[in-house]
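[job 0412] stage=fold_complex status=start
inputs:
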Amino acid sequence: DAGITQSPRHKVTETGTPVTLRCHQTENHRYMYWYRQDPGHGLRLIHYSYGVKDTDKGEVSDGYSVSRSKTEDFLLTLESATSSQTSVYFCAISEGQVEAFFGQGTRLTVV
Amino acid sequence: GQQLNQSPQSMFIQEGEDVSMNCTSSSIFNTWLWYKQDPGEGPVLLIALYKAGELTSNGRLTAQFGITRKDSFLNISASIPSDVGIYFCAGQLNPGTASKLTFGTGTRLQVTL
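[job 0412] stage=fold_complex status=done
writing structure:
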């Protein structure tokens, strides 16, 4: 394993509530990413970070925000959860520009 | 957004058979990666390809970076039960930036004894 821990692993939340998912790495990698995985879509990039306090949007960033105050932690926040955000969320890390290593995922259900 | 077309979507094979799957894109990629995902787990990197025409092996797995830069192939020889899972291709479009990968929709492989 590449030293990536996601928490929580499972969460059920109500529509309209804020939700924060955490990704913690012990590899001191520069880049961190949040992807969501949905049937028929593969994995799609939500946001990524290229350093502390440096973040940028991915393909499906609407309704999500991120923060990275320390190298090892990357937080994904759903500002007001909707049913369309029910998904499996994966954090990934990389040191270089190519190979990304993934965490075990967080299954989020919005009811 | 851009999407990679991966085929087949699923396949049933018998143990010992060889497997082939491919990934195509309407745009050029500079790097191709192949990942495998087991149930309840995150994707695990199998092979990375960096140059057009490159052929790379990892045990029973062989992958090729298409010469046009718009496709890639993964072959698994002599399949075994633990090969079961979902295989994803991924491409990176822009070198010099973070590893923003575009993923295919996956090939689900099931192996029968």
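[job 0412] summary: Chain A has no helices and eleven strands.
[job 0412] exit 0
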